[in-house]
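I am writing to request your help with a piece of structural work I have in hand. Here, with my thanks, is the record as I have it:
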Amino acid sequence: MDWSFDWIFWVFLGFSVLMVGFWAFQFAWVLRHRLWSERPVGRLPDEEKIALTWTHPIKDLDYKLRRSISSWVRQDFDGTIEHIFSFQDPNDEAVPVVRAFLASRGLTETGRVSAKIIVNPVLPRMNGKTSNMVHAVRIATHDLFVFNDSDLRVRRDFLRKMAGPVRSDPKVGIVTCGQINFGGRDFWTRSFTCVQNHETDLYWAFFCFLGIDVGMTGAAFSMRRDTLEEVGGLEAFGESLLEDMHIGNELYKRKYKLVVGPFLDCHVKRISREKTFNYAKRIAVGIRAHLATDMPFFLLVIGWYWWLLIAALILFRADLLLVVAACFVIRILHGNVMRLVTKNDIVWYDLLNGLYFDVIAIGALFYSVFARPTVSWRGIRYRVTPKGYIDFDHPLDVPAGSPAPDIENADVSDNVEAVPDHGTEILTEDEKEG
């Protein structure tokens, strides 16, 4: 065979080398950003003059919620902080846990660091999480907002990394954070951490860093009140299952910068199979609604070596199949190295986690195009319109809701020690460990 004129082979090989280089760049960036996330930053200029409202939308009792709350109140930050814990149901199992924790820390509705609990029903034509945040914004005292999910733990310099960019540069529209999920020993829990870490850290955060419009992530974000009002407020995005992606798209249109904030920790212990698939469906539906024109790009980037395999089989060429086989081996290695970078160990039944994610992602993208899915999210089931938004006009025929959260291993103890008068915090053994 005359290799110099075999253009098909050289196209296969060249494209494979290019995409493997993309994987290597992904790995290097994620590792670098994780190390930066764990490295403390110093005090901000005039930090004591900064005032912010920190909103925590909560539904149901997350695993080890008390450890998460502890990380939120243990901040190296000299400014004024208003915590608002926003609920939908007065009987939510998390309400007494939050109330007891705040009481143990002596946090009230006044002072430099204050905290309050609010409970409001879900607003009409709005998803549950956005409704929680809207109610909090409406009573917020300050003009700098920070939001975060209730299953996340943050480091002590979190507020400095979130407040600094939006305060110092008016062109920064938002600081938005990804999360690193780890924990669990069963297959489906580890499948969930694999899928979410790949989607959030390898793709969303990396593309956001490159300046590609992939929206933002709602795990945790900060923005100024005037910027939020300029894009129509949170109310303008409540009909989407991914209001965060939608907000990010709007900020891109208005030429704002999106800054990737620190990776945050999300500890999990047991995740059901249904939650893994619902997460994949929700992301895919969001892509259809907010990044539909880019779907061929995502299919190419995520599944390129699968498409090469199909082409090699059609052409029935052994040399092309060898190139593709090498790509599969590299993807398996890449997926397992990324498993370690995201602070997970490796066991035999998730050795193929990289290939697993790519298959799940491709399947979810095609599903979102050809189906009108029903997606469960935080205990609420939503029917989705063909355009990817929540179908409020045609509610589900079955009662809304999903099985009660699995709190068998949740941290429901309220036995936390109070803060001494001199301000040095005493932690329980659980909080020290976490």
About this structure: The chain is about 45% helix and 15% strand. Residues 217 and 290 are 13 Å apart (CA to CA).
